Amino acid sequence: MDVYIGLLGCGTVGSGVIELTRRRSAKIADLTGLRPVIKRVLVRDVHKARDVAVEHDLLTDRAEDILHDDEISIVVETIGGIEPAKTFILEAIRGRKHVVTANKDLIALCGQEILEVAEQNGVDVYYEAAVGGAIPVIRPLKECLTANNITDLKGIINGTTNYILSKMTETGASFEEALREAQELGYAEADPSSDVDGLDAARKLTILASIAFQTRVRLEDVRVTGIRGVTATDVAYAQELGAVIKLLAVGKDRDGILTLEVRPTLVPKHHPLASVSGSFNALFVTGDAAGDLLFFGRGAGSLPTASSVVGDVIDCLRNIKLGVSGRVGEVLMFRKRVDPAKAEPVSHYLRLQVEDQPGVFARIAAIFGDAAVSMETVVQKRARGGHAEIVVVTHKAAPVDVDRVVEALRALPSVRAVAAVMPVESNGDT
Ligand code: NAP
Ligand code: HSE
Fold first, then answer.
1. How far is Cα 392 from Cα 315, in angstroms, rounded to an integer?
2. CB-hemisphere CA count at 13 Å for 297?
3. Helix (H) or strand (E) holding 237
4. Peptide bond into 268 cis (omega under 30)
5. Is the entire prediction scored with pTM above 0.85?
6. Lowest mean pLDDT: which of 97-101, 199-203, 347-351, 376-380?
7. Catalytic-residue membership of 204
8. What CATH number labels 2-133+302-322?
9. Where does the pLDDT of residue 428 fall: very low under 50, low under 70, confident under 90, or very high at 90 and above?
10. Considering the domain 138-297, what is its CATH architecture?
11. Ligand nearest to the CA of 304
12. C-alpha closest to that of 84 among 110, 56, 59, 120
């Protein structure tokens, strides 16, 4: 039997979904007893050239051709953004259509509302592709790992910034040069702010942390620092210290108190996350029974993302065949508190630009001492422009104490700038 699908969007992900659905339709029919058929494809411009061979009469610019078609049982949303994607998805759900989406922005902001409406209407909403592209991570967290209390999430979940930081490390390029190259190669968008300012990773962490810690995490709960401030100088110093700089997303649950952060971080070269380069993603998950797990793979791209989307479509087909929905319901059953002040002690890297005069170093050391932040490594470099550069790596220190050090350093007349502050990942720890 054929099951009809309405596809919203035919860009990078949508065209991959068309290609993979067609390539695998016989296998899917063998597996599920149902053959997926893409009946209509919603786009903005029906005359635009497409990356995939799609019959012209399938294309429409009228959403109602899909949302009001009673033959369509599954709507796949690959438009992106909040509106009109949200309105289309809610209308599809109210029309008793199952929904598959790759839209992390929408799930991070409105996921709970959408899932509640889906439950009321007896349909499923799946979103495996919203985090980590091809990497199966939502379903493992929601299903395979539910016997665990998940304590830690840590990973690289934005491919664009990982590509830029990898380029800066490999070539010594500045942030601006690496970004320009990423845009020329199509890795970064014309407006790269959502990626480089860390928002994309924060939205994905919001989704992952909500599921893993089984509580409602909001985007504003995540402390976010992007990579615009990462300089070639910091990349070079990190290398001298045996590390590379990565944008890490970190979520921790300590007895019901959460800390959530996206931040450029020095990662020792032999740490498993240090070798995740280019546009790849990787995520460590720690469960109290399972221990450490590492998920790794392509975090974006047409077919890799379609792999997750079509996997979700197959799950919808299985549910349709069995006449069930809501097998794995909402998992947000606890109320947990987010408290950035409870962030655990970690080593920190600080780069200071200071007056090159007697007594300056002693005054700086006193500030660290007063805040009980112990220095592990101190390197003084002679920089251009009549000032010296001091690089400090601390022993493990509470981020609130390091914040106090930074505040005091900024108030010191002989400190021209606290040019960089980044956490340092422990050796090989997850
Ligand atoms: P994209 O290439 O920009 O494609 C968007 C598609 O949606 C286009 O076909 C566009 O039509 C259509 N569209 C946009 N606004 C529309 C509107 N108002 N009405 C009708 N159609 C509209 O985007 P994408 O890269 O495929 O990303 C799609 C979603 O997947 C996003 O939520 C993104 O975050 C997520 N995602 C993407 C990747 C990736 O590798 N790209 C990976 C994981 C998740 P036209 O073609 O006519 O302009
Ligand atoms: N902009 C995202 C990234 C695409 O760079 O990882 C996949 O969500």
1. 52
2. 16
3. helix 232-240
4. no
5. yes
6. 376-380
7. yes
8. 3.40.50.720
9. low
10. 2-Layer Sandwich (3.30)
11. 1
12. 110
Query: Which tokens go with 293?
Result: 């797990």
In the chain, count of helices (H) and strands (E)? 13, 17
How confident is residue 430, by pLDDT bands cut at 50, 70 and 90?
Answer: very low
The catalytically annotated residue of 86, 204, 246, 336 is 204
Q: 3-state DSSP call for residue 138?
A: helix
pLDDT digits (tens, 9 = 90+) for 135-169: 999 999 999 999 999 999 999 999 999 999 999 99
Spell out the residues 6+ positions from residue 337 whose beta carbon is closer than 8 angstroms to its own.
Answer: 256, 257, 258
Parallel, antiparallel or unpaired: strands 35-42 and 59-60? parallel
What six digits make up the tokens of 168? 């800066």
CB atoms within 10 A of CB 390: 21
CA-84 nearest atom, ligand 1: 18
Ligand 1 neighbours, Cβ below 6 Å, are: 9-14, 42-45, 48, 78-80, 84, 102-104, 129, 133, 300-301, 305
**What is the DSSP annotation of 76-88?**
EE-S-SSTTHHHH
Domain boundaries, the chain: 2-133+302-322, 138-297, 345-424
Q: Beta partners for 266?
A: 245, 424
Torsion over CA: 241, 244, 247, 250 (sign): negative
Q: Which two tokens stand for residue 301?
A: 């791209």
Can you identify the CATH homologous superfamily of domain 345-424? ACT domain (3.30.70.260)
The tokens 């615009």 sit on which residue? Answer: 228
